[in-house]
């Protein structure tokens, strides 16, 4: 449930909940799926899959389905940078979540910043993200916002 709120809040902060475009929303997930940090990355991947399954199962975000693109950054700084580049420049994701470890996040975040892609590598707390989403949308919202 928290992950679903984080995904919806991130989309709201970026202004995608009120969009009428029907294309899928691409979200990149860079987690350690192999190597020593896989014990952390594998449950994170499952959480994203469950959250996106619930969101898409309920009709998506204002009718738009979320497409998760998940890549293994192996818990390594160099691989995290490569994965971020792939997700941003080849897969053209709207936003990125990950990587698993803070040293990988510090190494890969400049790639996202340079491409102006929203990234959780900056370790935004969910409450701060939610406040940002509410602020950008205003209270009360002039039109219904749905993230089912």
Architecture overview:
This protein is an alpha/beta fold and about 150 residues long. It has one domain (about 1-135): Response regulator (Rossmann fold), CATH 3.40.50. Helices cover about 50% and strands about 15% of the residues. The chain has 5 helices and 4 strands, in the order αβαβαβαβα. A 4-stranded parallel sheet has the order 2-1-3-4, with helices on both faces. α2 (about 40-55) links the parallel β1 (about 25-30) and β2 (about 65-70). α1 (about 1-15) packs parallel to α5 (about 125-135) and α3 (about 75-90) packs parallel to α4 (about 100-115). Mean pLDDT is about 75; it is low at about 120-148.
Gyration radius, in Å: 15 Å
Q: Using the coordinates shown, work out and report the CATH topology.
A: Rossmann fold
Beta content comes to 5-15%
Report the biggest beta sheet as strand number plus sense, adding barrel if it closes: 4 strands, parallel
**Strand element count:** 4
Helix content: 40-55%
In which order are the strands of the major sheet placed? Answer: 2-1-3-4
Query: How many domains is the backbone divided into?
Result: 1
- Bulk shape: globular
What is the H/E order? HEHEHEHEH
Give the CATH architecture.
Answer: 3-Layer(aba) Sandwich
Cα-to-Cα separation, first versus last residue: 11 Å
- Coarse structural class: alpha/beta
The CATH class is identified as Alpha Beta
Q: Give the mean pLDDT.
A: 77
Assigned CATH superfamily: Response regulator
**Distinct helical segment count:** 5
Low-pLDDT runs of 5+ residues are: 122-148
